[in-house]
Amino acid sequence: MALNKNYINGEWVESNDVNLDINPSDTNDIIGEYARADEQQTNDAIQAAKAARNVWRDVCVNEKSIILDNIGSEILARKTELATLLAREEGKTLPEATGEVVRAGMIFKFFSGEAVRLTGDILASTRPGLNVEITREPVGVIGVISPWNFPIAIPAWKIAPALAFGNTVVLKSADLVPASAWALAEIISRAGLPAGAFNLVMGSGSKVGDTIVNSPDIDAVTFTGSDAIGNGIRGKVAGRGAKVQLEMGGKNPLVVLDDADLDTAINAAVDGAFFGTGQRCTASSRLIVTEGIHDAFVAGVIERLQGLRTGHALDSKSQIGPVSSQAQLQTDLEYISIGKEEGAHLAYGGELLQRDTPGYYLSPALFTETDNDMRLNREEVFGPVATVIRAKNYEEALELANDTRFGLTSGICTTSLESSKDFKRNSEAGMVMVNLPTAGIDYHVPFGGRKNSSYGSREQGSYAREFFTIVKTCYIG
């Protein structure tokens, strides 16, 4: 089995440490061997990006645009191949994996356009005879630390704007799922960037991640992962005066009111809570339901869950794939036990499943009779586990929805225009969905939350320029 190497300064570089990428749908299936970088190789990548900073910055915007567009085109042309790889290593069903790959391709194409759309301002000075130019410049060397749950889309939505606005990149992919990021890096390596403008260093957070975070030559760090790690990164990076952007998950509420269309609410809840095996930071893990519709809603969700099949990610009959790793499966099971100990009622699922191949199969778990003070409703599980919280009315439902240290996304199911307008205004989340799953954000709109879910500028869309550029004001006499 050939070793898949790190990409540093335009070359593929070996390492003494090797990571085996294992298929969570079939633990006998080894996807590949991937080199783990050490601290020195990570520093080499950082220095290469630093040396290439001005070279890439000065490439004309038209050439940058063409390069990014070509990357996006190759991703889209190879979507079946890349989606199959992604499904094998992360455990998403093939349709979900295909959607993620398409999203990655479209992100590069979107930022191909943004590269030539970067604007500034010319203002009149308050002093006669002077003009003021306001321009945006690249930040410099960007450290990208990506998570395991979206192994090609999240690297894409960090790398593409970084390159579009003239920065150089050092990518640390998630150690659990190196294959998709490596495939993306291989495409980028042939796209025509100068050596050092893009670098891939795979490996552990303690070696690769910490080296990136602590390096004085990294001008900005963009991170997606847990809030515990993210807040530690914030202190280190901001403490030395560099820019930092964090996306750290959520405990997202979906409010269901008595006047909701029942089928719409059930579809939104099941999709938002359990598809993607619940391994989405936007998953609706708290289902807050008013009393009049509560019992019918719970019965309807259970009926839907009974009709879903959890199985091999590449099996066309599967609607839900396996949990992505043994460690995450153990976490899910621990939270299911915690929920029972806290007095919540396990109304459905939460059981290990046997399939034709050995894998991390868990039936989606639905808890009822929970309250918002339970750990199950305070902490992010990051698995196919959702709770139902009973609310007396809309006012109590809104209060419960906002009673969390997170604030990434929220949703409401209602036929009342008044309630939906009030929820949009008063929900303490960065993104709000009405009669839709809480998960599912287009590639061209800003992504991010409030409270402990996010820190720094928004990701995606035209708002990405706020993080990846620095504003310069110039007076001309």
From TrEMBL:
Transmembrane segments: none annotated. The active site is at 247. It holds the Pfam family Aldedh. It comes from the Bacteria. Keywords: Oxidoreductase. CDD domains: ALDH_KGSADH-YcbD (cd07097). One of its GO terms (molecular function) is oxidoreductase activity, acting on the aldehyde or oxo group of donors, NAD or NADP as acceptor. Residues 12-473 form the Aldehyde dehydrogenase domain. PANTHER family: ALDEHYDE DEHYDROGENASE-RELATED. Belongs to the aldehyde dehydrogenase family. This is Aldehyde dehydrogenase (NAD+). The lineage of its organism: Bacteria, Pseudomonadati, Thermodesulfobacteriota, Desulfuromonadia, Desulfuromonadales.
